[in-house]
Design a protein that fits this description.
With 318 residues, the chain is of the alpha/beta class. Helix content is 36%, strand content 20%. α1 runs parallel beside α2. It is globular. Bound molecules: zinc ion. Zinc ion binds next to loops.
């Protein structure tokens, strides 16, 4: 058993969470703040500093050997900066430098994007455990992801590799906010599933809920328009997953996030569509599985990145 601890930060548009995590992935101390996402950059940073101050007040803090940050993207791990879409006050924000300053400058700091963090968590302790080549995805408000290749996390030079939501699967498709066309995200994210269902004539129930969760419930009850909206999303995911598998030979795609929780409504058409897109012999064994890590995935993944960063690491197998 490893007793070394690392500190972990999970920074998103809604919350900033911090924890001390041991070498077995157990969370020992945890704290959280709401992200003041609409405020200026320094106000957001103060919330991060408050989280760090609470962590460093723990008697366990002195055992922390490194600090990992998983942040909403885009991030630039090589520059140590972040520009989260949902936090406009941070554009090219020097998060690594500021976190280092807030913690006294002693700890090595590792920055990765949130999709990569979730991938690290699923590979370490979740559905991708034991898989040397995996794609892990978060399908919710947006579509993010990360890659494990050759048994190791593959964040890429800037920490954004595996960004499957912005692979184009429809050459002349709709313009995406990223600037491209026909992206997976535009067809498969929760809001886009709901939008498509409504456009095709789906009517919400008496509670007026028009979210993808409500569309999933309607699909489960047999509503053909809701079923078709999920089939369309599954088709786009399948095309993106098949492209990834064909390029880098992954053998599993793990799907988390709110849409990933839809169950068979998503996974049944997804498996069917994969058979149509993943056709070459070396990708035919590709499987898809729901994510296993819960809401702590971001923290556990940031911890995994920090553990890998420690001098002489490799113990975490990430
Ligand atoms: Zn896009």
């Amino acid at each position: 058993m490893h007793t070394d601890l690392v500190a972990a930060l999970d920074i998103g548009g809604t919350k900033i969470a911090g924890a001390l995590v041991d070498g077995d992935g157990r969370i020992h101390t945890r704290t959280q703040r709401a992200t003041p996402a609409r405020e200026d950059g320094e106000t957001v940073m103060r919330a991060v500093e408050e989280v760090l101050a609470e962590l460093s007040a723990s008697p366990l803090w002195s055992r922390a050997e490194a600090l990992g940050i998983g942040s909403a993207g885009p991030v630039d791990a090589s520059a140590g900066t972040v520009s989260p879409v949902n936090v406009p006050g941070w554009r090219g924000y020097p998060l690594v430098e500021r976190v280092r300053a807030a913690t006294g400058g002693d700890l090595p700091v590792e920055l990765i994007g949130d999709g990569v963090a979730i991938t690290a968590a699923e590979h370490w302790q979740g559905a991708a455990r034991g898989h040397d080549n995996a794609l892990c995805m978060v399908v919710s408000t947006g579509v993010g992801g990360g890659l494990v290749l050759g048994g190791r996390l593959h964040p890429g030079p800037t920490g954004n590799a595996g960004h499957i939501g912005h692979i184009s699967v429809d050459l002349d498709g709709e313009l995406c906010p990223c600037g491209s066309r026909g992206c997976v995200e535009g067809l498969s994210s929760g809001p886009n599933i709901a939008r498509r269902a409504l456009e095709q004539g789906w009517l919400p129930g008496p509670d007026g809920d028009t979210s993808a969760v409500a569309v999933a419930a309607a699909a489960r009850a047999g509503d053909p328009v809701a079923v078709a909206a999920f089939e369309r999303a599954a088709q786009a995911l399948a095309a993106g997953i098949a492209a990834t598998a064909t390029l880098v030979e992954i053998d599993i795609a793990v799907i988390g996030g709110g849409v990933g929780k839809a169950g068979d409504v998503l996974f049944a058409p997804l498996r069917k569509a994969l058979a149509h897109y993943a056709t070459l012999s070396f990708v035919q064994r590709l499987t898809v599985a729901p994510a296993q890590m819960g809401t702590d995935a971001g923290l556990v993944g940031a911890a995994a990145a920090a553990l890998a960063r420690r001098p002489g690491a490799a113990a975490a197998g990430v």
